[in-house]
């Protein structure tokens, strides 16, 4: 044993002795357990206070979100009403029902304005002009009429509303017949601002639930600055009817929140979840708040409280889990310290055995790798040399076959002899193709040169080389945007040439051949595809076509060596990528292969 090895051995023994000694139970272990217990109690108390504050803040955020969403939703509906006013003004102050239907359709009410029952127009009709108004409306709708009769001194009928099918009961309704509707209408007229009514029940609401109308006034002249001008020029209102429980759908849907809501106006409820929610909870809510909201001329009293769902999500067992977990951890720590020494000794023993085993297997693996590399090199050299040396006898065989064929050409010899000479010549030619293919296969990767390759330019060169074959096949080649990549240019040129040549060779007899070449970025790899609409491949052969000398068709129908796709696979393996094919018989084929962006040499 050398001095260095002896020193290492002493160091190892010293370290093993220190590790065994450290595995015993010492005073600092007890200190760790005590400090852990104190820390557990402190964290438990802090966590309990934090959780309580977090729950309260969560309720405040959800309550504020409800108010904000309600306000934003009403603002969105107001914008729709003013767009209707602008449209009427752009039509010289009035529109017929067909024009209004076209406008309302462009709003896409069900999709963009969830909760709205429709959008319509209310006209301010003077008593002296009632007959003219009715005549005008009945030109398109012969059955149009006002209802109900009243003596309020105003006539404000709903002329039209879309969608009409869901609001037939509202068409012709005189909103001046009822106090809440009329009060809000007069206020909108006098202020020139959007207003909503107090709680009402819509005539088109079969459920008879609380709702309201939303008005936006329009005038005969665009400039109506004074109260007197607004009253004298008041032409009507664009309005939208709302059933409040429908208004609460969408972003305010009950299933989307953990708080309950009730909305009241002037002592009357517009919306109330209190009864259903309170009935489902035996205890009072954790939190509740009241909010007065000024809403387009009305003041809504909004009550928000934590629901059973909030109770459920707010329940946080984290403090108790911290306490229990801390105690369990302290117990486990003590147990761990007791068993640590034994585990430490076992670990040391196991590590020694594993180290010896790994060293032995690593040595054996290294020898296997060396033998495998030498065998592969010898095999490649043999294949290259054999294919090279076979060329000379094949050339002689071919030459003598030609000479013999020429000698027989001018004489009346046995046809069987001539036919045999022909078969010998053809077999020699096929053998030569196989030898060339084998040489090509064995030469791949022998001296690769990694470089930056413009795939677009490379494909253009390949297509130019195959121009005659492409024209003869009446083929169209479409090349997408191809990247510049790291790779082995000679091998990649062979790859693309083989795939395009295959697409040309295995085309359909009828119809035009279409070849599409594309590439997409897959993150760590480039994924290329070469697609055609040729004869395709049966599914049972998809795993065999990349085998060397594997052919699916007879030599007479589709001549070739059967090495082209094996070359393609070897090129892709050289780059560290993958190649596969998706194909259906008579539907064409798509060859796919990946090239890593970083190639390990």
Automatic annotation (TrEMBL):
Its EC number is 2.7.13.3. The chain crosses the membrane at residues 27-44, 320-340. It holds the Pfam family CHASE. The lineage of its organism: Bacteria, Pseudomonadati, Pseudomonadota, Gammaproteobacteria, Cellvibrionales. SMART domains: CHASE (SM01079), HATPase_c (SM00387). It comes from Zhongshania borealis. Keywords: Kinase, Membrane, Phosphoprotein, Transferase, Transmembrane, Transmembrane helix. CDD domains: HisKA. This is histidine kinase. Residues 157-254 form the CHASE domain. It is an enzyme of class 2 (transferase). Residues 385-599 form the Histidine kinase domain. It is found in: Membrane. It catalyses: ATP + protein L-histidine = ADP + protein N-phospho-L-histidine.
């Amino acid at each position: 044993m050398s001095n260095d090895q002896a020193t290492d051995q002493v160091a190892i023994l010293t370290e093993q002795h220190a590790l065994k000694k450290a595995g015993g139970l010492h005073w600092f272990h007890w200190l760790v357990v005590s400090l852990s217990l104190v820390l557990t109690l402190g964290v438990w108390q802090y966590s309990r206070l934090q959780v309580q504050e977090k729950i309260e803040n969560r309720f405040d955020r959800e309550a504020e979100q409800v108010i904000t969403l309600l306000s934003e939703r009403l603002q969105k509906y107001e914008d729709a009403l003013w767009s209707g006013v602008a449209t009427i003004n752009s039509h010289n102050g009035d529109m017929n029902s067909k024009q209004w239907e076209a406008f309302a359709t462009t709003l896409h009410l069900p999709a963009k304005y969830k909760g709205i029952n429709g959008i319509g127009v209310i006209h301010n009709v003077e008593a002296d002009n009632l007959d003219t108004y009715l005549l005008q409306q009945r030109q398109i709708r012969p059955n149009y009429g006002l209802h109900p009769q009243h003596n309020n001194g105003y006539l404000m009928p709903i002329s039209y509303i879309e969608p009409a099918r869901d609001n037939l009961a509202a068409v012709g309704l005189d909103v001046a017949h009822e106090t809440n509707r009329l009060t809000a209408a007069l206020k909108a007229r006098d202020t020139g601002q959007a207003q909503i009514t107090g709680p009402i029940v819509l005539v088109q609401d079969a459920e008879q639930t609380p709702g309201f109308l939303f008005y936006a006034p329009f005038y005969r002249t665009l400039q109506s600055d004074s109260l007197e001008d607004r009253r004298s020029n008041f032409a009507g209102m664009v309005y939208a009817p709302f059933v409040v429980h429908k208004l609460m759908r969408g972003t305010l849907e009950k299933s989307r929140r953990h708080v309950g809501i009730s909305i009241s106006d002037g002592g009357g409820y517009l919306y109330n979840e209190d009864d259903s929610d309170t009935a489902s909870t035996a205890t009072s809510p954790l939190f509740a708040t009241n909010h007065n909201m000024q809403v387009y001329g009305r003041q809504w009293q909004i009550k928000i409280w934590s629901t059973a769902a909030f109770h459920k999500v707010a329940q946080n067992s984290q403090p108790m889990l911290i306490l229990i977990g801390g105690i369990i951890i302290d117990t486990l720590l003590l147990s761990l310290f007791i068993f640590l020494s034994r585990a430490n000794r076992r670990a040391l023993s196991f590590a020694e055995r594993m180290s010896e085993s790994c060293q032995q297997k690593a040595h054996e693996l290294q020898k296997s790798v060396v033998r495998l590399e030498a065998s592969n090199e010898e095999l490649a050299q043999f294949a290259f040399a054999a294919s090279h040396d076979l060329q000379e006898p094949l050339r002689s065989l071919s030459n003598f076959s030609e000479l013999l064929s020429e000698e027989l050409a001018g004489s009346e010899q046995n046809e069987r002899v001539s036919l045999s000479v022909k078969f010998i010549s053809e077999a020699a030619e096929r053998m030569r193709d196989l030898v060339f293919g084998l040489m090509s296969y064995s030469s791949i990767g022998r001296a690769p040169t990694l470089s930056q390759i413009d795939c677009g330019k490379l494909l253009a060169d390949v297509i130019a080389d195959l121009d005659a074959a492409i024209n003869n096949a009446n083929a169209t080649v479409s090349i997408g945007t191809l990247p510049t990549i790291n790779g082995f240019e000679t091998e990649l040129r062979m790859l693309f040439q083989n795939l395009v040549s295959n697409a040309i060779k295995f085309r359909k007899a009828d119809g035009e051949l279409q070849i599409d070449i594309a590439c997409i970025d897959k993150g760590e790899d480039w994924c290329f595809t070469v697609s055609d609409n040729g004869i395709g491949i049966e599914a049972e052969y998809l795993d065999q076509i990349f085998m060397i000398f594997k052919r699916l068709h007879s030599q007479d129908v589709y001549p070739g060596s059967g090495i082209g796709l094996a070359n393609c696979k070897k090129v892709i393996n050289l780059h560290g990528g993958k190649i596969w094919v998706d194909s259906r018989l008579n539907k064409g084929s798509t060859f796919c292969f990946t090239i890593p962006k970083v190639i390990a040499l």
